[in-house]
Design goal:
The complex is a heterodimer of chains A (219) and B (260).
Chain A: H1 4-22, E1 23-24, H2 34-70, H3 76-98, H4 103-140, H5 145-161, H6 163-168, H7 172-207
Helix pairs in contact in A: 1-2, 2-3, 5-7
Chain B: E1 2-3, H1 8-30, H2 41-56, E2 60-65, H3 74-94, E3 98-102, H4 107-121, E4 133-135, H5 140-154, E5 158-164, H6 169-178, E6 182-187, H7 193-199, E7 202-205, H8 208-217, H9 220-248, H10 253-258
Helix pairs in contact in B: 1-9, 2-3, 3-4, 3-8, 5-6, 8-9
The chains are: A mainly alpha (219), B alpha/beta (260).
């Protein structure tokens, strides 16, 4: 029963969600449309279940970090910072929600987000510039025929995109465009079609309860 | 109740393809057809990387990606959880510590239950600890920072990433490369594939993600699904060729049929 009940719920809900997207009009013998069934009954449950999942995940986060502090693990001070930040942010948000008319509180709440999280995120993304260079260096080392083709293609595409490329040879932009639009696009579409079919068959197996890895079963 | 215009052909094709898939799955299950999959080096490397982690006494890191179990990315996440089941079984077999980091709260209970059940099935319940499956953050950058920090601190021996990835793919893969971990990336995310190819030891692409569960378990039901995938792909290729020929000869019959 522990596995059958979730599988039945998955099947029924998946059929309702699928039909709600592609059908119109009431279900035969009733006055309710499937899209209304989805909107009124399934959608709120999705929100409720997701809220519980956030609760479960937050408890895990707190337990992992309180244990790290209790056992004085390496860099446990970061766990302290995380828990304190979590508490302040949760408290502040609750205050803002309970005092919606207080514009100053809402502005200060946004201030934390805009002045701490946003710059930290930008700093993290900025690392990508350096990582692209180091990853390219490894990928472009001509150790095999395939890597050599990759290296030559990359050089041509870079020269085609950079203004200096056209000065060296006026056809570089045309060759770059052909590389991107013909061999590259062909490969990409092949992978995409294969992945879409794979996704469809996997979804079907989940829908019919044949895929049970997520329930902790290998069979 | 009627089908909305634009979905009629898709709906009937869904039924035809679903019935065809189920028939092949039943044939495979009953042993009427034998399906063998070609060797996928990246999937073979998972066991090797876990063995290496045991020898080094370092943990294995697994990420089921950034996708949720709701919406268009669900199939990728479910496929990633299949890989997680296998990784957990191998971790139990080799007594290697496994740490699973999670971004989506909805994925957390599924991953936790899956890992717990696999350890129990292997008779190694004691290997499951409270911090084996860790929720880091549902913010993309915060999750990435958490994983990168964890990999550097713990010096993981193997980094296995399966599922949907976005802009953080290279940040995660480069962090693994910097600490010398064996890295296996399994994804259908087209835009991130070049980064994984450049930074990981093994990259499993596109539909191979969805075949991974069948390949690793050799389960007849899943193998039947893979065979169906191949036949559907052949049908799609034939349709593409027929469409090109028809359009070239001035007929848009197939085009009109597909958009019905």
């Amino acid at each position: 029963m522990r596995k059958e009940v979730p599988l039945v719920i998955t099947f029924v809900v998946a059929i309702i969600v699928m039909l709600s997207a592609i059908t119109t009009g009431p279900i035969p013998g009733t006055s309710i449309a499937i899209s209304d069934l989805f909107r009124q009954h399934i959608s709120p449950w999705m929100t409720i279940v997701s809220a519980f999942a956030v609760g479960l995940a937050s408890v895990n986060l707190l337990r992992v970090h309180t244990r790290a502090i209790a056992r004085k693990r390496n860099d446990w001070i970061y766990s302290v910072i995380l828990i304190v930040t979590l508490a302040i942010y949760a408290g502040f948000r609750t205050y803002v929600e309970l005092n919606l008319s207080n514009a100053t509180a809402a502005a200060n709440y946004a201030l934390i987000f805009n002045n701490i999280l946003t710059p930290l995120s930008a700093a993290m993304w900025a690392l990508l510039a350096f990582y692209v260079a180091s990853a390219s260096y490894r990928a472009f080392r001509a150790r095999s025929a395939e890597a050599t083709v990759l290296l030559i293609s990359a050089i041509v595409v870079m020269l085609g995109a950079a203004p200096v490329g056209a000065l060296i040879w006026s056809r570089f932009p045309d060759v770059q465009r052909w590389l991107l639009e013909v061999p590259n696009m062909t490969g990409q579409r092949g992978i995409l079609i294969g992945a879409a079919i794979g996704g469809f068959v996997t979804s079907l197996r989940v829908l019919l309860g044949m895929e049970r890895g997520h329930l902790g079963s290998a069979d | 109740m009627k089908l909305v215009a634009g979905n009629i052909f898709g709906f009937w094709m869904f039924l035809v393809v679903a019935i065809f898939t189920l028939v092949l799955i039943n044939y495979s299950k009953s042993g009427k057809i034998n399906i063998t999959l070609r060797k996928i080096a990246g999937l073979e490397a998972i066991e090797e990387s876990i063995g290496r982690a045991t020898e080094m006494g370092k943990p294995i890191h697994f990420s089921p990606g950034l996708g949720d179990i709701i919406g268009a990315t669900a199939a990728e996440t479910f496929a990633a959880l299949e890989v997680l089941s296998y990784v957990t079984r191998m971790s139990a077999k080799y007594n290697a510590e496994l740490v699973v980091t999670i971004r989506q709260p909805n994925v957390f209970p599924l991953a936790q239950e899956s890992v717990k059940q696999q350890y129990m099935a292997a008779g190694k319940s004691d290997m499951f600890k409270e911090d084996t499956v860790r929720f880091l953050s549902n913010q993309q950058v915060a999750y990435t920072t958490g994983v990168v920090g964890f990999m550097h601190r713990e010096k993981v021996a193997a980094n296995i990433m399966a599922g949907l990835y976005m802009g953080e793919a290279l940040l995660l893969a480069e962090a693994g490369a910097q600490i010398g971990a064996i890295q296996v990336a399994i994804t259908a995310s087209m835009t991130q594939l070049p980064f994984f190819v450049a930074a990981c030891d093994y990259t499993i692409i596109g539909e191979e993600l969805f075949a991974a569960g069948a390949y690793l378990s050799q389960d007849r039901i899943k193998l039947g699904g893979i065979a169906a995938q191949d036949y559907i792909k052949l049908a799609v290729m034939a349709t593409a060729v027929a469409g090109a020929l028809l359009m070239s000869s001035g007929s848009n019959f197939l085009n009109r049929l597909l958009v019905k």
